[in-house]
């Protein structure tokens, strides 16, 4: 029988750092486990070193197929102060250590484990269970989820709901243990800012030109915030939180529901509500500065790139206008975005079952719909009309800062959390009725 702990240790030991990815061996390993369990598999690859695996367990056909998707690539570990080998997969003090333990080889293992155990039990699920183990999520998904959705959409025919990263682990806020379950995510928009001015010889200084404009722009970006927007996903999230809090925290959350009062509340309560900041507004982070080619030549043009993230339901054009307004008219602003069609409203049809599974394991916990500030492969499956839920249930100790170890040093998962996830997902597969 499959041992999820040993399987996660093995998965971590395959170095699937993306770039370059090299997901092949890890994917073939999972393929062999599925085959051994009698589960039908198919491989789809744009690059043979980076295949995607589909496993399918037939259901009785009384419900549409249910999709589980997990990426098997990971982000780099270079220049990070790791205490233990990031590709060692060691078990230390009850944690499995290594890159991908949380994001998201741990999640992939939960899905594989649940599917294999369901197959072994002989029980037939209501709908086919489709497992997609994909490459390339951490570098845009072009060889992974995007490729599958665009070139092999027939694989996902009839699917209405999917689970994947992230959600269903505890975050304590205002004394309440919330379990956010992702129902929507922000959209990535890249900005290119150009600042121009008089150039010349380094021995003859200029003032107020391109470099000074860069300084002023960075200062504005640091000090100011873009406007707050209430969209479906953050409204549903706030309403659910308001229902389960009281007193001052409840009043604060309620004031976030109004675009008129939200910005002031966020500014006043940054230490408590900072975690909500990126789900209440579009944001931009300056990431790359380019300017100057020689130490004695004053550049007449300096460029600044911003990593922009937009709330679902807004347009990139309106986002660009917000950025232009913030940086001022002396800066030229251009933007590019993934050609993804408009996001639909969240389809909450599976939410109650997911919430029930969480709640049965923690009666004091409060599952809430969640708008993820980042992007996941969920956006690609959205293109097929599939509602993605972030659902990788984990029990975590109160002092474990999930957000601080994902993509960072010392990524690790409690052994108990991995088992919790395996059991919760198996429960979902058994109870899913469409
Ligand atoms: Zn991930």
Structural account:
With 434 residues, the protein is α+β, with helices and mostly antiparallel strands. It has two domains: 4-166 and 376-431, Zn peptidases (Aminopeptidase), CATH 3.40.630; 187-337, Alpha-Beta Plaits. The protein is 34% helix and 23% strand. It contains 15 helices and 18 strands. The chain has helices at residues 4-13, 24-36, 105-121, 145-151, 210-223, 232-243, 247-256, 262-268, 270-273, 277-280, 316-327, 351-361, 378-382, 402-405, 415-431; strands at 40-44, 52-57, 66-71, 91-92, 95-97, 129-134, 161-164, 171-173, 176-185, 187-196, 200-201, 283-291, 297-298, 301-310, 331-337, 366-372, 387-390, 412-414. The strands form five sheets. Strands 1-2-6-3-7-17 form a six-stranded mixed beta sheet. The chain has a four-stranded antiparallel beta sheet with strand order 12-14-10-15. A three-stranded antiparallel beta sheet has the order 4-5-18. A hairpin with a 2-residue loop joins strand 4 (91-92) and strand 5. Helix 1 runs antiparallel to helix 3. The longest helix is centred in the first third of the chain and has 17 residues, at 105-121. It is globular, with a radius of gyration of 23 Å. It starts with a helix and ends with a helix. The model has no long low-confidence stretch (mean pLDDT 96). Bound molecules: zinc ion. Residues 71, 103-104, 137, 165 line the site of zinc ion (ZN).
